[in-house]
């Protein structure tokens, strides 16, 4: 009957020791959190090249996605350089792309979008950066050692932590997929609106030609039945 309070007391003692180990004066410090994910949509004029800089921590993971959602051809040149100046990715005339850098190098990464090959068409570009910090096995082992009390608990804290991490990763992936689907939807909408404008323009041109042809046909038929002889009285 007294096992319940003992188990709660043991769990609280384990949590207290965990907080002591994570204190700033402890032997090990937690790894700095990765920078927040970023997404941006911008208009790239014809004949222009735009570059963006994004800082990233070392030994992490960075995923860069881009997509052209508006403009003639829906293509663009893309390049990605490391903080040390090494060209990691260089693509030509692509409409979209997904690239993962792992492990990352500490510093500012350079992302460039080039539309210099187009002389009249501007491009609407969407890109997203997703960061993830590496998991440290030592932290997980120390967690398991600290929270394990003398009495065997029915539920393992390590399993709970693993389930929470898995759920977090899946939620982040779901957010990423939703953002990518919104970019696809924006690109399709722009393409449909452009096609509708072209259809309306050429329909008006065809209607005008039909009216002119009908007028000319009526005029020609009337001229055939007119009596051009002069009547003398």
Automatic annotation (TrEMBL):
Q: Which terms are listed as keywords in the entry?
A: Endoplasmic reticulum, Membrane, Signal, Transmembrane, Transmembrane helix
The record ties this protein, via InterPro entries, to: Emp24-like, GOLD_dom, GOLD_dom_sf
SUPFAM superfamilies, alphabetized = Supernatant protein factor (SPF), C-terminal domain
The domain of life is Eukaryota
Instruction: Please give, as recorded in its UniProt entry, the membrane topology of this protein.
Output: Single-pass type I membrane protein
User: What residue intervals traverse the membrane?
Assistant: 201-221
PROSITE patterns per the UniProt record, alphabetical: GOLD
Localization annotation: Endoplasmic reticulum membrane; Endoplasmic reticulum-Golgi intermediate compartment membrane; Golgi apparatus, cis-Golgi network membrane; Membrane
| Segments forming domain GOLD | 49-131
- What single Pfam family name could you report for this chain, choosing any that match? EMP24_GP25L
Where would one find the signal peptide in this protein?
A: 1-30
Question: What Gene Ontology terms describe where this protein resides (cellular component)?
Answer: endoplasmic reticulum membrane; endoplasmic reticulum-Golgi intermediate compartment membrane; Golgi apparatus
Q: Which PANTHER family match?
A: TRANSMEMBRANE EMP24 DOMAIN-CONTAINING PROTEIN
Which family does the entry's similarity section mention? Answer: Belongs to the EMP24/GP25L family.
Name under which the protein is recorded = Transmembrane p24 trafficking protein 1
Which lineage is the organism of this entry classified under, starting from the top rank? Eukaryota, Metazoa, Chordata, Craniata, Vertebrata
Gene (UniProt): TMED1
């Amino acid at each position: 009957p007294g096992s319940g309070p003992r188990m709660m007391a043991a769990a609280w003692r384990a949590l207290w020791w965990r907080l002591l180990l994570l204190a700033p004066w402890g032997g090990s410090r937690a790894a700095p959190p990765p920078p927040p994910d970023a997404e941006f949509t911008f208009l790239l004029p014809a004949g222009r090249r735009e570059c963006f800089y994004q800082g990233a921590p070392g030994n992490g993971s960075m995923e860069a996605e881009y997509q052209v959602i508006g403009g003639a051809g829906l293509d663009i040149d893309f390049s990605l350089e490391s903080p040390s100046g090494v060209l990691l990715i260089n693509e030509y005339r692509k409409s979209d792309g997904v690239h993962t850098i792992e492990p990352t190098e500490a510093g500012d990464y350079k992302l460039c979008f080039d539309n210099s090959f187009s002389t009249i068409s501007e491009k609407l570009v969407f890109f997203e950066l997703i960061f993830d910090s590496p998991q440290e096995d030592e932290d997980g082992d120390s967690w398991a050692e600290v929270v394990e009390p003398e009495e065997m608990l029915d539920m393992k804290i390590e399993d709970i932590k693993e389930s929470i991490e898995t759920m977090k990763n899946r939620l982040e992936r779901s957010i990423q997929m939703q953002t990518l689907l919104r970019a696809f939807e924006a690109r399709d909408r722009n393409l449909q609106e452009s096609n509708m404008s072209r259809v309306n323009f050429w329909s008006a041109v065809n209607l005008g030609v039909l009216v002119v042809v009908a007028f000319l046909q009526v005029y020609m038929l009337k001229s055939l039945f007119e009596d051009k002889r002069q009547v003398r009285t």
